[in-house]
Amino acid sequence: MRRVVKTLLLLTLTGFASWTFAETSRAPQTKPSQDTVVPKEWVKSTKHKLRFATSTIQYEAHIGELHLKDRKGKPKAAIFYTAYFKKRGDKNRPVTFVFNGGPGSSSVWLHMGLMGPKMVAFKGTQAPPPAPYQIVANQHSPFLASDMVFIDPVGTGFSRPLGEHKLDEFLSVQADVQSVGDFIVRFLNEHNLWNHPKFLAGESYGTTRAAALVNHLQNRGVAINGVVLISPILNFQTARFSIGNDTPYPLFLPTYAATAWFHKKVAQDIGLADFVEKARRFATQVYWPALIQGDRLADDAKRKIANELATLTGIRPEFWLQSNLRVPIWRFVKELRRDEGLTVGRLDTRFTGFDRDNAGESFEFDPSYAAIVGPYTAAVNYYFRAELGLEENREYEILSFKVNREWKWHENADGFVNVAEDL
User: What is the DSSP annotation of 187-219?
Assistant: First the structure.
């Protein structure tokens, strides 16, 4: 009996909870969960050359993970990043922190599609052929003017919670700003970049993050020199097609007009720029005031506006009338080319796709996202491993629908996120 008691005591002290009474000497040694094991920080550096039309740049590429700490000083998240430095020690060389949006997106789109020294070769507006995909030097990269750090927020890329911390802790506007701000401060410390010019660059929800970060970082003594906003959204009232909120409809009308013009669903007697400007004038001078009238808008005036909307968007007047002059984006992308059995993209409305159910209210998938996700996923994974020396075997989370689906917007008391005032 004394031997059994000693065995049970040993099991308790070592944290092993799984055992059998009959064979105490063979108690299985359960390993700690991978979710609670905290890995070490790491960084991998490689040297490269980038040939531009008039010059050649030698630079270093760093991939790695930095850990964020909780109030007890324990790691709470690992942030994966890709950094490019042209020349170390140049105090006048700016550094730009770059991220995409979602929320739930990794930085792959800006990294491999616009701003990084290498990019995916992507031509036209049709889905590309299968792999292999070509990775080429980015002749338009702003790397000529600034070092760059591409950040994957928690839940995207390889970034993830650590220890006992859960993903849910990072899925809100303020929690996201806090974690990305913590990373930036930590990175400035690690590389002694405090006195360098500092910029932020974000796309879509990344502009929301960037605008809020300007204020957040300034309150921590980090003065930002400038902000790059790509496809910006700062006040979400402008893009939420909720009942009682008429703001998005006139604001989206120029996009509808540009899309209809591109797909030749409207008259081509004037150029794209002039056609979009025509839509802007109608939206602000006629359409918006009409929506404000609500049910007081006379039937003949309503019919006249529906006819004009049809000439600007390629959507038949009856559909506008049936929608009470209010067609949200998910209806527009389905309706524009419905008679051809086609849908158009939302991220990029130049792309087209087709659905199983042509009579549905909204498209079943975004053809523009479907066209880019394969090439960018393949390219960034190959690039990390073949050129930057990555040895990580976990999946690189290109776009986390879990993060997007579980994002907590309700912390905003007025119902709409608005970071314009932060900026």
Answer: HHHHHT-TTS-EEEEEETHHHHHHHHHHHHHHT
Give the residue from 244, 212, 249 showing the smallest Cα distance to 227.
212
The model's pLDDT over 288-329, given as tens digits with 9 standing for 90+, comes to 999 999 999 999 999 999 999 999 999 999 999 999 999 999
Taking the C-alpha atoms of residue 324 and residue 60, their distance in angstroms, rounded to an integer, is 57
Q: Which of 389, 393, 384, 391 is nearest to 135 (CA)?
A: 384
Print burial letters for 372-410: b (CB count within 10 Å at least 16), e (below 16). Answer: beebbbbbbbebbeeebebeeeeebbbbbeebbeebeee
The Cα-based distances of 70 to 260, 270, 336 in angstroms read 50, 58, 50
Pairwise CA distance, residues 353 & 371, whole Å: 10
Beta-carbon contacts of 241 under 8 Å, excluding residues fewer than 6 positions away, are: 248, 249, 326, 328, 329
Q: Are 39 and 79 in contact (CB under 8 A)?
A: no
What's this model's pTM, rounded to 2 decimal places? 0.88
Look up residue 142 and give its amino acid.
P
| C-alpha torsion sign, points 165, 167, 173, 178 | positive
Q: How far from each other are the two terminal CA atoms of the chain, in whole angstroms?
A: 70
CA distance 186 to 64: 13
Listed residue (102, 71, 70, 242) closest to 173, CA to CA? 102
Q: What are phi and psi of 58, to 5 degrees?
A: -100, 135
**Angstrom distance (rounded) from CA 181 to CA 79:** 11
Both tokens of 243, joined, read 């009942």
162-207 pLDDT tens trace: 999 999 999 999 999 999 999 999 999 999 999 999 999 999 999 9
